Amino acid sequence: MIGGFVLGLGGDLQSAPQAQISIDAAANSGTIDISHNGGDAIAASDLLITDDQGYSATLSDAGYSADEFGVGDTFTDTGVHSDPELTVKLVHQPSESVIAEATVDTS
User: Fold this and answer.
1) Rounded to the nearest 5 degrees, what angle is found at the Cα of 60, between the Cα atoms of 57 and 62?
2) What CATH number does residue 36 fall under?
3) Global model pTM greater than 0.85
4) What is the per-residue pLDDT across 12-70, written as a single tens digit (0 to 9) for each?
5) Do 58 and 44 contact (CB within 8 A), yes or no?
C-alpha cells in the first residue's frame, strides 16, 4: 500500500506524539495511575485507555478534567479493573499508535 499513500489514497493518520508516559497500579485499589513524564502535551480526548479485560475509555470520558495531558500531569483511572494482573495501553487515537503499555498488578 506504499503507492496508495504516495498518491494520496491512504488514510489521514497524524504522527504519534513523542511523550514519556508511565502506567502503574495502586496496590489493592483497582485503580491505574497514568503519568506524563516528558515530551509533547496531548489532547485528553485523543488518548484512549484500554485493558485486556475489555475496558476502553478516553482520558476525558474517564474523568480527566483538563483539555491536555502534559508534563507533570497524573491521572488516576478508577474504572473497574478487577483482574489482579492487567495489560493496560494508552493509545493516541489520531495516529492509532500505542504510546504506553504496561502489565500492572492491581492486587
Assistant:
1) 45
2) 2.60.40.1260
3) no
4) 678 989 999 999 987 667 788 999 999 999 999 999 999 888 889 999 999 999 999 99
5) yes
